[in-house]
Write a structure and sequence with these properties.
heterodimer, A: 554 residues, alpha+beta, D-Maltodextrin-Binding Protein, domain 2, Dipeptide-binding Protein, domain 1, Dipeptide-binding Protein, domain 3, 3 domains, seven-stranded mixed sheet, four-stranded mixed sheet, B: 313 residues, mainly alpha, 78% helix
Chain lengths: 554, 313
């Protein structure tokens, strides 16, 4: 009997220990039956809800804290700044209904529209003052505080660096509906930047009421945009938004809501799309082949430019002929058509296509040359010259690469191309996670680095600013005084206010970067997306978040 | 026995502390930091580091961390969910993962045992062969392959279960991940049970029991299975670890908001506090299970218990 008892006790211990750890979820088991009918109901009720697949979690709903694309996309759906963007990417008035700009381009006075937050209180100029001060306040430690400096807002950089008080920021609420913004220097893309989520207003009273919990749950998020949050948890795999009835332009919002569903596995994303679990799904490169003739297949161009940065402090890479040889030696069309296949385009430039519209109302790329187009025989000529100048027959460099599949595929292809085109050049790949790779680039601890840059605003300066002497993103330590002068004068100098002259000098600056092969451009990233045929009006943007405000679902 | 358990518990705590220190050191030597986005200026990086106390020497941070941990404060997330306390982040996630993991180990063990027993009793029959085939498939195919196949057939083609995890239907959503996760456990347990049962079957005491007239379930459970259990329990601990690592992939496939998928994201984004807390939880679970297994040995087999007591007293 004793033994039987012991066996029994063993079985009980086993059962209890396993069920104990599982008991947390048990309470939900009892609801299984009722849930069945609920899901069925949801399916029919969710007809007018847009379901979007996302490949990363929303990491923050706090407009001044968020840094990643998923978060910005969700925040753009629930908040509105002074401006938003129309379908062509041109800034249009949003929270502001009227603006006057001083002649010197240094003062903007905005009259705010009669808009309300989702809790019914009015959106006032004070909300903008509070939000912007929060952005640059070192106590907030916002990773995007630099964007206030880029917008040229007076004293923003000095405040962010902790040198002067946050009260010195060039923003003032003249009355409830009048907002005055002062700049350090005229910024031609100021209006375009104003739709960036970091410049969203924040209601101080609400913020103080939430305390630590601000923006962490649906109850602690206030919205002044087309949608408001109905369910959100930090880093959740689903986020649901519903139409915001308090939104000033609510009548033009046709959707009842948006659901973001995180799906990281690409096969699952396709199945969920076919299933109807999502209405919009991203495709990976391998899947494009299968769907490219589908009527629901859409290719969109993003503003990301992928390029190789040569470290000019590394022996040999200071030689312009070697840099040019490398930059011309790989077949870019094969990379976009055979390796990536996701709608990316060859990059024969330093400023992406469809990024910026000039004073002539034309896309920047339409009126500029293309540079560094693949030319293997020319590459070989440059390599011969470089060999003579450097007095070597062989060189060997390490190429630093992200550990993502697509980055590695591209790197392997380029490695093979360079080694066949330029006999004597050997390329080794060094693969590591992106965070570690970017740290090495920032530290200058690399030879060649495969990296990318995404635009922060719709002006060529978002790229060109990178290559001035001592900029921390000028990974390769290139320095050219003529270039520095051009950039400086287009930012603050005499041509800053002359839109046409400025545009021409930006083109010249790009020409210098390309002639010197400061970077080896590879491709401009495209995205392949499936969108259900009953969804209309999704606005993909090159330099900002996708806008869903005008989407209809039939 | 009490003294032995106490000693084991103390050793476990020390092991956990050592693990924590190693984790700290490993993160320290890993290139990169949570704040090295290309767009951050050096000023800002310094600001962020000082805000989160990352500018202090590693020893100070380690001691601070332990001090905070004792009070239940695991710090905040740097990247995955900015400034959210880890405890908030884990609140719902931990339960979801433990639930699916618990279901997988429970079902895996029971089904594995049953299969193993059948295979051993119906030795060299079609049942035995079938079990072996299942075992070989279960051991050799990684769980994510099962997950993808299950998702395609049961969720997409037949629409029996949801394709993705939904918090509104936690049970249905957990079925496919549980099956995918427990395949390896089923296969391993079945294989071990079969082998051990067969070995016991040929032993003298079984012959004796049979000749004494013990038969049927009584013979199988009390004499055969009990003796076969020791090695099976030994493999249970590593199997639980297998489940944890398996959950990293399975949670990603089914978009489960659990701790496995969280750990993957944390590692990719150098989110120190999340990595440390989750690794710590995984280690604590493993060590806890080892402890339980050790104690269970004693319960099942008095000889082990006695031997241990001799050693420690």
């Amino acid at each position: 009997m004793k033994k039987v008892k012991k066996i029994l006790s063993f079985v009980i211990i086993m059962a209890v220990s396993v069920t104990l750890i599982a008991c947390g979820g048990n309470s939900t088991k009892s609801q299984v039956g009722s849930n069945d009918s609920k899901t069925a109901e949801n399916k029919t009720n969710s007809d007018n809800i847009l379901k979007v697949q996302s490949d990363a979690e929303v990491s923050s709903m706090d407009p001044q804290i968020a840094t990643d694309g998923s978060s910005f996309e969700a925040i753009s759906a629930i908040t509105e700044g002074l401006y938003s963007k129309d379908s062509s990417g041109t800034p249009i008035l949003a929270m502001a209904k009227d603006v006057t700009k001083s002649e010197d381009g240094l003062t903007y006075t905005f009259i705010l529209r009669d808009a309300k937050w989702s809790n019914g209180t009015s959106v006032t100029a004070k909300d903008f003052v509070f939000g912007w001060k929060r952005l640059v306040n070192p106590k907030t430690a916002s990773e995007y505080s630099f964007i206030a400096g880029i917008a040229g807002i007076k004293n923003a950089d000095a405040i962010a660096a902790g040198k002067i008080s946050v009260d010195e920021l060039g923003i003032k609420a003249i009355d409830d509906k009048t907002l005055e913004v002062k700049l350090d220097n005229p910024v031609p893309y100021f209006e375009s930047l104003m739709s960036f989520p970091s410049f969203s207003p924040v209601n101080e009273e609400f913020y103080n009421k939430c305390g630590d919990k601000f923006a962490s749950t649906a109850d602690n998020i206030l919205s002044n945009g087309p949608f408001k949050v109905s369910s959100y948890q930090p880093a959740a795999t689903t986020v649901t938004l519903e139409k915001n009835p308090e939104y000033w332009d609510a009548s033009s919002v046709k959707l009842d809501g948006i659901t973001y569903q995180v799906i990281k596995e690409s096969q699952q994303a396709i199945l969920a799309y076919k299933n109807g679990d999502v209405d919009i799904a991203k495709l990976s490169g391998e899947q494009v082949e299968q769907f490219k003739n589908d009527s629901e297949f859409v290719n969109t161009l993003s503003g990301f430019l992928w390029y190789i940065s040569p470290n000019q402090k590394v022996k040999g890479l200071e030689n312009i002929n070697l840099r040019k040889a490398l930059a011309l030696s790989y077949d870019k069309s094969a990379i976009v058509n055979n390796v990536l296949k996701d709608g990316s385009i060859e990059a024969n430039f330093a400023i992406p296509k469809s990024l910026a519209i000039g004073p002539d109302r034309k896309d920047y790329r339409e009126t500029t040359d293309s540079y560094l187009k693949t030319d293997k025989s020319k590459a070989l000529e440059y390599w011969q010259k470089a060999k003579a100048e450097l007095g070597v027959d062989t060189v060997k460099y390490k190429l630093l690469v992200d550990d993502t599949e697509s980055a590695q595929n591209v790197a392997q292809f380029i490695q093979a191309e360079i080694q066949t085109t330029l006999p004597g050049v050997k390329i080794e790949l060094e693969v590591m996670p992106k965070k570690n790779r970017s740290k090495k680039l920032l530290d200058g601890d690399f030879e060649l680095g495969l990296t990318r840059w995404g635009p922060d605003y719709t002006d060529p300066m978002t790229y060109l600013d990178m290559w001035v002497t001592n900029n921390s993103n000028n990974y390769g330590f290139w320095s050219n005084s003529e270039y520095d002068k051009i950039i400086e004068s287009s930012k603050k100098g005499n041509i800053a206010l002359d839109a046409k002259a400025r545009w021409e000098s930006l083109k010249k600056a790009e020409g210098i970067v390309m002639d010197q092969a400061v970077i080896f451009p590879i491709y401009q990233k495209g995205d392949a997306v499936l969108i259900k045929s009953n969804i209309k009006g999704v606005e993909f943007k090159v330099a900002s978040s996708t806008i869903y405000k005008n989407v209809t679902k039939n | 026995m009490k003294k032995y358990v106490l000693k084991r518990i103390i050793i476990s705590i020390l092991t956990l502390l050592a693990i924590l220190l190693i984790l700290f050191l490993m993160l320290e030597f890993m290139p990169g930091s949570p704040f090295n986005d290309e767009k951050l200026t050096p000023d800002q990086v310094a600001l962020l580091n000082s805000r989160y106390g990352l500018d202090k020497p590693i020893l100070v941070r380690f001691l601070n961390y332990i001090k905070n941990m004792i009070t239940g404060d695991f710090g905040v997330s740097y990247n995955i969910s900015k400034d959210t306390p880890i405890s908030t982040l884990l609140q719902t996630r931990l339960l979801i993962s433990i639930r699916i993991g618990g279901q997988a180990i429970l079902i895996g063990t029971i089904v594995g045992l049953v299969l193993g027993i059948i295979a051993a009793l119906k030795h060299n029959t079609i049942w035995d062969t079938m079990t072996t085939v299942i075992s070989v498939i279960g051991v050799s195919l990684p769980s994510y392959v099962f997950a993808l196949v299950l998702a395609y057939i049961l969720a997409f083609k037949l629409a029996l279960f949801p394709l993705l995890y939904s918090t509104s239907t936690p049970f249905q959503s957990s079925v496919l991940p549980t099956i995918a996760l427990c395949m390896f456990t089923i296969a391993t347990i079945a294989r071990f049970t079969r082998t051990e049962m067969l070995e016991v079957l040929g032993s003298d005491y079984m012959l004796l029991a049979e000749s004494k007239g013990v038969y049927g379930m009584h013979l199988i459970i009390r004499h055969q299975l009990r003796n076969a259990l020791i090695p099976i329990i030994t493999v249970l601990a590593p199997l639980v670890v297998g489940l944890m690592t398996g959950s990293l992939v399975i949670e990603k496939i089914f978009s489960i908001p659990g701790i496995g998928s969280l750990l993957v994201t944390a590692i990719q984004s150098n989110d120190y506090n999340v990595i440390i807390t989750l690794s710590f939880i995984f280690s604590a679970m493993y060590i806890g299970i080892m402890l339980i297994v050790d104690i269970l040995y004693g319960v099942i087999d008095p000889r082990i218990r006695l031997a241990k007591e001799d050693n420690h007293e």
